[in-house]
Each structure stands twice: as C-alpha cells, then as structure tokens.
Request: fold
Amino acid sequence: MKKQLLTCMLGLVASATALSQTKPYELEREMPVFLDQLKKELTYPLAWGNSDITDFAQWRQTARDAVLDAMLAPPPYTTDYQMEIIGEERRDGYTAKKIRFNLTGYSRVTAYMLVPDGKGPFPAIVLLHDHGGHYTIGKEKMIRPFGVSDEVMADADAWAKQCYGGQYAGDYLAKNGYVVISTDALFWGDRGRKEGADGSKYADVAGNFIMLGRSLSAFMNYEDMYIVDFFATLPEVDAKRIGCMGFSMGAYRAWMLSALSDKVRVGTAVCWMVTTDCQLSWEYGKEHGGFANSLPGIRRYLDYPHIASIACPKPMFFLNGRYDKLFPVPGVEDAFREMQEVWKSQSAGEKLRTEIWDMPHDCGPKVQKAVLDFFNRWL
Reply:
C-alpha cells in the first residue's frame, strides 16, 4: 500500500512539473513575447528625415510640440519665486549658498548654488542629478552639501566616490568660473516620501500620476525647464550663457532639457543615450530606469536620438562608456549616427561631440574635465 501511495505521489509531482513546463505564457523577462512585432511597428514618422517636413525650424517646433503633448499636463508655472538664502559657506574660489524658492505652483524647493569669486554675471550650469536607485539624496550628488547631518554628509561623499571619482561636479565647475545650481527631482532627497526612501514605491507613485492625468517622468522634465527660467533671473547668472550637465538619469534630463528649452545654449550628457530597438531587446535585456524616462505615446513619433536632435544646432556633448552595462554599445552607436546625420544636415557637425570611452557607467574627474573643456569652448 505504501509503495502504491509513493508511486502515485511521484506521478503527481511529475505531472505538475510537466504542466509547469508547458503552461502557456505571453510575458518573459518583463517583456511581451511579441516584443519584436511591436518594435517593427515603431517607424518614428516624425523623426528628421522620416517626416515630410523639410524646413528644419518648423520640424523642431513640430517635434517639440509632440514631446510636450506626450508629457501630459505641466505643473502650474510661476514667476513668484520668493527666493531666500538660508545658508552660506565660503569655499576655495567660490561661495556655496543654500536657497529656497517656489519652483512650481505646487512646490517650494531647496537648492544648492555655487557662485565664483569675482564680478559677475557668470556663465551658468544647471546640474541634473542621477538616479542610481539611490533616493536619500539628489542635489547632494552634484554639489557638496553643508549644514546637514553627518549621515547625509557621509551619504553624499560616498556617492561622489562611487560615481564621480570623489570629485563633486558642481564644485569642480564653480572653481573653474561657472555659477551652478542643483535641486532634487521629485522622489529624491528633500522631495521624497514621508515614510522614507523606498525605490520599490517609484512605480506606484508613477502609476498614481498617470491616473491623475500626469506623468511623473515629465514632471521632472517640466521642473528642469522651470529651474532654467528661475536661474536666468538671478543677477549672478549670464542668461545668454546657460548650459546643463548630467550623468546617467541626469544625462537623460540634460538632453531633454536642451531639446525643450531655448534658454539652454549648450548641453552635456554623460552615460545616457541608446535606441529603443537595442534597449528593449532579447539580447540586451530590459530598460533600466522605467518610469523615470517614460513619456506615454511618444514612441508613435520619435525615439531617444530623435528627441535629442531637437536640440540641434546647439553644441551638445554625448559621452558613453564601452563597458557600461546599462547602455549597450551597438545601441549607443546607432543613436550617435542618427544624431550626427541631423547635425550634419544643418551644417553644424562640429557642434556635436559623440564619444565612447573605455570606461563603465561613470562620471569621474577625467570625464568632468572633458565636460569643462566643452563648456569652455562653446558657452
């Protein structure tokens, strides 16, 4: 009897195993099994060269309008900034200021601003922080903080060491004559969750935004545009010489900002450019960042390099790493070729710098020096 029962149980286990192996499915590795068919339907009809618009200025405006439409409704705009300085610290060749101002009709934010010694106004850089799955700090990733807890200071220093070679990009640029500013994107640093930082909640927040008819990713892009507008009003800033710089998600923000704001004259983007075809593929895996760079419906018209090309003919510097696991080289090269064709078509090829270095996902001192050199040339 026991032998018969054991045989029966083994049979059931074998049947269950076979069933699990043959169970139908339509999702694999967080992507639909019909991924390739979906990608074939992405023809990007509004891309320069695909569109029937032949006037470049008209194309730029039409493409920009399509992006803004995909970004859904913006947060309310304000010029009632009511800026206040809440702290200052003297540093070697510049002054660090902690300020507060009304960024939107919803949000009053804290920012760090670094002002070089001497007589302004100065050329200016908006610094856009990364994602990194690290939410406890934002602006402190770009500018060395002050007047904070030991915990925040240690957090910022550790992040600077991990991603920026121990050199804060903002402090480096300020020491070289640029006034710089950085704030937290929504969900990072001072603009995080009341319950505490938890990256697993980002998709929930983004989903709630969509249900409210808004896009969390687009809020970041809108706010970056608003920061530029605020920055341009300050007496320390030469409003005709504003650039932007970012690493990783900050690089995505930088080329989006360059494409959307005419007040940005020069943009630099470190470690964020690729094509959707490569980014979402069985060979290279799934997209990293998710809702942080997702604009509903935009793929009906434009891919990443097409959106970045709205910045043409501005000077733009795109730098990616050959050993960057987030952005496969074939996709980076394809994206770079797309953009190069656009800048060349406008006789502005010398203003576009696209490079792949033998490095991982990184923004260390050597990279920052290349960024500084680019700003020094064009801004």
Summary: The chain has one domain: 40-378. Residues 40-378 form a domain with the Rossmann fold fold (CATH 3.40.50.1820). The longest strand covers residues 237-247. The CA atoms of residues 71 and 218 lie 5 Å apart.
